[in-house]
């Protein structure tokens, strides 16, 4: 990602800091800048890198990942995965929604949430 693009993303996140309660991001620059700006961050990590290596160090962050034996694979592209991206496919939308609810101080009841309407 270019420096210009990173600066633009940082500006957008900073500008929206007080309008957003939670950021759901992947293991990227967004995770680090959100946690630095003290936005409650839920980061989804694939198996390419380890959580210990790249976890954000600021704020209250929740990292969702699959502890699979082939991680870290350090593969450059998803299509190169010999295990069909098991590290990401094990992370279900319900897992992410549960963490969002928790950060909002709500109780997640999967029977009352219609994922078909949320995830297309």
What does this structure look like?
The chain is about 35% helix and about 15% strand. The protein is of the alpha/beta class and about 120 residues long. It has a single domain, classed as 3-Layer(aba) Sandwich (Rossmann fold). The chain has a 3-stranded parallel β-sheet, with helices on both faces. Helix 2 (about 30-35) links the parallel strand 1 (about 20-25) and strand 2 (about 40-45). The longest helix is centred in the first third of the chain and has 13 residues, at about 5-15. The radius of gyration is 15 Å and the shape is flat. About 20% of the residues are buried. The model has no long low-confidence stretch (mean pLDDT about 75).
Overview features:
120 residues, flat, Rossmann fold, single chain, alpha/beta, three-stranded parallel sheet
Briefly, what is this?
With 120 residues, the protein is α/β, with parallel strands linked by helices.
How many strands, which pairing sense, and closed or not: the largest β-sheet?
3 strands, parallel
Number of strands: 3
**pLDDT averaged residue by residue:** 77
Count of structural domains: 1
Q: What is the element string, with H for helices and E for strands?
A: HEHEHEHHH
Q: What is the helix tally?
A: 6
Topology:
Blueprint: H1 3-15, E1 22-26, H2 29-36, E2 40-45, H3 51-54, E3 61-65, H4 86-89, H5 93-103, H6 115-118
Helix pairs in contact: 1-2
């Amino acid at each position: 990602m270019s420096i210009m693009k990173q600066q633009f993303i940082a500006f957008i996140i900073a500008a929206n800091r007080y309008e957003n309660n939670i950021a759901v991001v992947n293991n990227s620059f967004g995770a680090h800048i959100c946690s630095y700006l003290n936005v409650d961050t839920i980061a989804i990590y694939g198996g390419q890198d380890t959580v210990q290596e790249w976890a954000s160090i600021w704020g209250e962050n929740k990292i969702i990942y699959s502890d699979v034996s082939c991680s870290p694979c350090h593969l450059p592209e998803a299509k190169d995965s010999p295990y069909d991206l098991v590290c990401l496919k094990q992370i279900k939308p319900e897992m992410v929604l549960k963490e969002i609810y928790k950060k909002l101080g709500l109780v997640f009841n999967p029977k009352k949430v219609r994922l078909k309407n949320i995830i297309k």
